[in-house]
Specification:
By secondary structure, the protein is an alpha+beta fold. It is 21% helix and 21% strand. A hairpin with a 5-residue loop joins β1 and β2.
Length: 103
Amino acid sequence: MPGQPPGDRAVILACSVRSLRQYVLDAECACGRCVHYPLQLMAAGGLAGMTVASLIVQLRCKNCGQRPARVALLEYGSAGMPRTTYDGSARASGWVMMLVGEE
C-alpha cells in the first residue's frame, strides 16, 4: 500500500534535500524533455542542506536551457525507480505531489 506525501506543497518546498532523500523530483520542460532527479543522489552530491525550492529554481533543461514547466515529487518504487510516471500513470502504486505547474 502506498504511503502518503511528506506534507503539503509549501512544507515540501521548504524541506531540505537531505530530509526528502527517499523521493524523486521529476521535472518536465515545455520542450518535452523529462528528467528524474533522485534526491538521494542530489544530497550525496553536496546539495543536502539546500531546500527543495532552491534546488528547483536552479534546474535548467539541457535541450533548451529553460526552467521546467512542471516539477513533481514522486514516491520511490522498487530498485530506486519512481512508482508513478510524471503524467500520473502508475508503474505500480504510489503518489505524485505537484510542486510547480498544473496538477
